[in-house]
Amino acid sequence: TILTIGIGPTRVLVITNDHVTRLVGGRDVLVLCHKGQLHATDMRCCHSGGPLQEGDMEEFDGRICIVCPWHKYKITLAEGEGLYQAVNPSATPPKQTWRSKGVKQRVHKVTEVNKNVYLTINDSEPPVISIQLQYKSTVHNCVK
User: Fold this and answer.
1) Taking the domains of the chain in order of start, what are their residue ranges?
2) CA quadruple 96, 71, 18, 24: dihedral positive or negative?
3) Is residue 71 within 8 Å of 63, Cβ to Cβ?
């Protein structure tokens, strides 16, 4: 089932470079704007359930990420990949590069129609880790 809801006027997110949270189909979703681009992801971090709405957006290796405030886990906003910094010890000097752990966080489609933002929930299978944490969020709200 495809679920699409209206979020609100585009100008509110774009002008403020801000975010909004919504409960959609029993799932907490975070909609963000970074440099005029709209993104959406599950609100709980796939690593440990941290509140991504409190995280910073940063660029790593040309990819826009949200950084979880709890453990600094980096998640790409386009694909939901978890990033880590690997070291090639055989290089002289050893060189650090950003690598992907694969898709760990569920991301959702955000569209703009007639100056309004719409969110389409991604319910593809198999569910990624962030879905499992959604239902444990009450525990994570108590433990920080």
Assistant:
1) 4-142
2) positive
3) no
Residue whose entry in the numeric block shows the structure tokens 């995280």: 55
Of 17, 136, 133, which Cα lies nearest the Cα of 73? Answer: 133
Cβ neighbours around 25 below 10 Å, total: 11
Residue 32 CA to its chain's centroid (Å): 9
* pTM for the structure as a whole: 0.80
- Averaged confidence pLDDT in the chain: 84
Q: How far apart are CA 12 and CA 29, in angstroms?
A: 17
Residue 128: pLDDT above 80?
A: no
Distance CA 112, CA 116 (A): 5
pLDDT digits (tens, 9 = 90+) for 25-40: 888 999 998 888 999 9
Kindly report the CATH number that applies to the domain delimited by 4-142. 2.102.10.10
Write the pLDDT tens digit of every residue in 69-91: 999 999 999 999 999 999 888 88
